[in-house]
Amino acid sequence: MAFKDLPVDARPREKLIARGVAALADAELLALLLRTGVAGKNVLQMAQELLERFGGLSGLLHTGPEELKLVKGMGGDAKRAELIAVLELARRAMAEQLKERTVFDSPDAVKQYVQLHIGSRPHEVFAVLFLDVQHRLIVLEELFRGTLTQASVYPREIVMRALHHQAAAVVLAHNHPSGSIEPSRADESLTQTLRAALSLVDVRVIDHVIVSPGQSFSMAEKGVL
């Protein structure tokens, strides 16, 4: 069932034009991208099913093409490509903002940016945001994957990448697939180890952000760092 087959007052496109984008629920916005449903399921129902299956917008946008391909109605390349494109546009828009402004001016944007990259990964990922002297983003790099401990995150590698980018500061970031964003003692210990290593080359650790789907924790904001 396509948009034209829905009641007029249920069509997301008409609702957006008449009332503005803020009036649309997540499923309605997603339906605009999908455009058509499948046999026995209209496009709004399909959108809602996708959100529930993958844990909301964040989970859906972090879902890989192969996982999407298993969903009835998502077997074609076009719809999967559009979802991946939306995520990439969001990443690039946030990256542009952080490259133009100091991260201290937009801590929420930093957390959202990190969430878009690694928040919904099924495994742990350790990333570093390398910053210039004005604390604007140079680049985000994913450096380590798997169970993150002091033994598996190598300070030497992070120091080398900081020197390569001529970074003046960094924001450390990793995800907790379990859903809890509270830092563990191991997280705090690792942060201090990296902080000490980077200080030897005059690179400052200004924050360590922990994310999970829909949640984020800033050590700097909470006074843990």
UniProtKB/TrEMBL annotation:
<keyword id="KW-0479">Metal-binding</keyword>
<feature type="domain" description="MPN">
    <location>
        <begin position="103"/>
        <end position="225"/>
    </location>
</feature>
<dbReference type="Pfam" id="PF20582">
    <property type="entry name" value="UPF0758_N"/>
</dbReference>
<dbReference type="InterPro" id="IPR037518">
    <property type="entry name" value="MPN"/>
</dbReference>
<dbReference type="InterPro" id="IPR025657">
    <property type="entry name" value="RadC_JAB"/>
</dbReference>
<comment type="similarity">
    <text>Belongs to the UPF0758 family.</text>
</comment>
<keyword id="KW-0378">Hydrolase</keyword>
<keyword id="KW-0645">Protease</keyword>
<dbReference type="GO" id="GO:0006508">
    <property type="term" value="P:proteolysis"/>
</dbReference>
<keyword id="KW-0862">Zinc</keyword>
<dbReference type="Pfam" id="PF04002">
    <property type="entry name" value="RadC"/>
</dbReference>
<protein>
    <submittedName>
        <fullName>DNA repair protein RadC</fullName>
    </submittedName>
</protein>
<dbReference type="InterPro" id="IPR046778">
    <property type="entry name" value="UPF0758_N"/>
</dbReference>
<dbReference type="GO" id="GO:0008237">
    <property type="term" value="F:metallopeptidase activity"/>
</dbReference>
<keyword id="KW-0482">Metalloprotease</keyword>
<dbReference type="GO" id="GO:0046872">
    <property type="term" value="F:metal ion binding"/>
</dbReference>
<dbReference type="InterPro" id="IPR001405">
    <property type="entry name" value="UPF0758"/>
</dbReference>
<dbReference type="InterPro" id="IPR010994">
    <property type="entry name" value="RuvA_2-like"/>
</dbReference>
<dbReference type="InterPro" id="IPR020891">
    <property type="entry name" value="UPF0758_CS"/>
</dbReference>
